[in-house]
Amino acid sequence: MTMNETPETIERFLYYLRYERNDSERTVSEYAQDLNRYAAFFSERTGEAFEPSERDKDVARAWLFSLIEAGQKGSSVQRRLSALKSYYRYMVKIGRISQSPVRMLKGPKKELPLPVFIPHHQMEQLLNSPIPEDDFTAIRDRLILETLYQAGLRRSEIADLKDDAVEVDAGNMRITGKRNKQRIVPFGSRLKSMINEYRDIRDQKVGKSNFFFVSLDGRPLTGEVVYNIVRSALADVPQLTKKSPHVLRHSFATEMLNHGADLMSVKELLGHDSLSTTVQYTHISFEQLKQMYNAHPRAKKETTMTDLRFQALHFDATDQLKEFAEKKITKLSRLSDEITGAETILKLIKPDTAQNKEASIRLYLPGEDLFAEKTADTFEEAIDLSIDALKRQLEKRKEQRK
């Protein structure tokens, strides 16, 4: 066996993942890539062909350090450590070693960025824009966007969706998610109508298919194609830092929570294994909490605003900062009772530099939006500057209407 070949024990472990644990091909491929790189690092460092041993802790730790020094994210290093731990646990299971050398190793702290989502009014503009009535590709791509947004699917689930798994009469989809976990996702009348329209034009121009979403030549779509379709569609959405299918999945979860869905229901619809994965969306879903608070007899409503949204980019915003921004914005309603909502985005531009806090605030009014964006040394100051700019815009608007 040469140094470039996959070691026999890794091959055996990958077989176990694929046929005994029934992991997805994507998981098996990622584990294979990670473990082969580890084996190559082992051989380069020791000058020997890789064989698992209880004494591999120092080499494994050195490999993880090399990944960190190469600038890999904490989440990526954690994933590679998970692959190592799974591999060595399996070696213990089959009796190749007596105990795992990496069982006590810990990776770097995982980053916890807030999910990026698209505000409802921007999604409505995107999904209601006109498309040609007889254009198969345009109709298919719009349905992909609608399905991601209304059903919260992953891009791989869109690509792998079978035609017989989409049941229009029942109003649901049978989804095969990670680790071949099955779930049922319901959908409404709007999606039913679009599915029927898509199937009609697909059957006319492409023919019957086992897969639901196909190309013009009848082949099923790949995850990469789905990604490119969504990225192209989201290209013109302003201030969107990510433009992937997962953004629409985040938007689905956010809208569900904002409109009263409980965490357990959203967890099941998304196909999450752990509730902790779903909890991340509560950081950007405050509508339910605000409604509960407004029921308090002392909670006098100062504003007609019904849609207040908040998003933090590149940092974790404190509750105090969110409350500060919301108070400032609600006071603007004293200048105009036409304001129906507002969106605040706080962004950390460059850490450890002056004037690196950016606040952008958009006010929604009938027929137009008002927008202000300012930078300062603190987020509070940036918010105040943006509020002052919006006050001037509201006053000018009021003068123009006299």
From TrEMBL:
One of its GO terms (molecular function) is DNA binding. One of its GO terms (biological process) is cell division. CDD domains: RaiA. Pfam families: Phage_int_SAM_1, Phage_integrase, Ribosomal_S30AE. Residues 4-92 form the Core-binding (CB) domain. It is found in: Cytoplasm. This is Tyrosine recombinase XerC subunit /SSU ribosomal protein S30P /sigma 54 modulation protein. It comes from Porphyromonas loveana.
